């Protein structure tokens, strides 16, 4: 059985996958191009080849590429990645969504769309499907021209993503499949769902290959799949070999490598193909990590996902092989025609720790006033969606009329972090406030829910501001998007002075590097915020853990002076920021 990529016609038959009529088994691994620095794509793909894989799978995050309606940002990145996949001698599975989950902000859906549609996303609703159609019109050419029969690596494309875990609108799935075919996708389509009857009933389509996702008990999962799809290849589209972490929670219990390798062997002994999720997780750069809601019905507290997407994968966040890599390589070698290529050398690393000098500071108010959006006055507190803020902060200001005695102040429905000041004095939320008084509230988004029935919920002061049971009206609000920091000249022009007492704001400075390489950035004594190195956003840091340092890809650094910006949204004791 061939496992070597080649150009030709890829088909799904009653007995399995075939390329130009020859049987093939897909040994795939998930790697998200948007979670790996582009200069390191080639190395990570070589690592997948060296593990014994012949295919790579990636999602496509809509919100990354269309931050505003009709404004597209580097959609061509997908095409460049697929070209790198082809150069590495791998096939590609593309999962374009429009919903992707992936522990990514809003499951990949743009907030400008979900903020207006609420529960109508992922349905046949025209107000949802028309933007999807326009988006796919821009995206699909990157896929279509790189299909295997055109000499490219793309052998299959997914319809939606784990839809059976969310809905049962078969007309919606049929419409998506039609949009893909209409857009020029001619390779086989597939769906993926949990191995449960209700999920496969809701998420699969007649005539489209169904696959299942699981972390254990493959024989049982495939028996369930066969009840819905009696013939055709068996495939685990997501073999969960690890898991992700939430801020404020412990690290996920690491999966024992021997156990994971045994399950992988069992999958392959069933005659199935596999996609290892994740083969290499990477990093949710740019503050794009999503969140979950706790509880059986996902109605509980927000659980924001950390910046690292290491996932306990066989290739770790920094691109190094783990014990899981070694064991998977041994298993995969038994199901391939040839031995895997040698493991490539690791990328260079920083040779010695260096300390950043942060000697300029701009208060958070001034950062907002310079880089934020337009200030507006609203009847009640607007949401992030009302202010067109995807990732970032919103400042609310409102007066409490008086005279009136101290009454409890509440923020119903708020799920993010709030800092409150009353007449300029920091005050805990829930404190009784007398009037007259001036309130200022800073709300920091902790990421939008990416999975479950709460997908698409709004952010910010979603239930208004209540003084006792009375709404406070005439709220002034202004939003600061993280992508405002993409304008390096605007950031450089910010007024600055020496830092004072660890107050929140933008701290700027530099670090001198003699020999660039991969590094970790440590911020001991800093509370919470975001970091940029040479204008590249590493993501969110938070002292509550479990993540204690941010990955800095070597290509972000340069010999000599490197700019460092730290947007602290709480407080810092001013301890040094270090690259190690």
Automatic annotation (TrEMBL):
Domain Beta-galactosidase galactose-binding: 504-562
InterPro entries registered for this protein in UniProt: B-gal_1-like, BetaGal1-like_ABD1, BetaGal_gal-bd, Galactose-bd-like_sf, GH, Gly_Hdrlase_35_cat, Glyco_hydro_35_CS, Glycoside_Hdrlase_35
Chain ranges of the Glycoside hydrolase 35 catalytic domain: 17-333
A Pfam family of this chain: BetaGal_gal-bd
Alphabetically ordered keywords of this record: Glycosidase, Hydrolase
Annotated Beta-galactosidase 1-like first all-beta domain residues: 383-474
Family label: Belongs to the glycosyl hydrolase 35 family.
Protein name (database record): Beta-galactosidase family protein
Organism: Streptomyces argenteolus
